[in-house]
Design a protein that fits this description.
The protein is α+β, with helices and mostly antiparallel strands and about 90 residues long. The chain has three helices and three strands; from the N terminus they run βααββα. The chain has helices at about 15-30, 35-50, 70-80, and strands at about 10-15, 55-60, 60-70. The protein has a three-stranded mixed sheet. The relative contact order is 0.21.
């Protein structure tokens, strides 16, 4: 009887999302608390809608999961970085 070993390798890369969150946090530290609260509320809404990060999986036994911010999350961060806070509020 021949026995083979099977190795499954999982690599996870969250640096794109982590770096964006770090920069967003640093930026919000110098903003009024009500704006930071609005950003947190928008991030939670994106998370609830499943529109916060994209995951790309590659390989079969050597799986790599790469997380990217969604366009909606990038748009939110750009609004904060460029001080366009009116874009954080629902339009209508």
């Amino acid at each position: 009887m021949v026995t083979k070993s099977l190795e499954i390798k999982l690599t996870s890369d969250t640096s794109a999302v982590s770096n964006l969150l770090d920069k967003l946090t640093q930026c919000l530290e110098s903003k009024p608390a009500y704006l930071a609260a609005q950003v947190v509320k928008r991030i939670e809404a994106l998370r609830a809608q499943g529109d916060l990060v994209l995951m790309l999986q590659t390989g079969s036994l050597n799986m790599e999961v790469i997380m990217y911010p969604t366009p909606s999350f990038v748009y939110l961060a750009q609004a904060v970085f460029s001080n366009k806070f009116q874009e954080l509020y629902p339009q209508g």
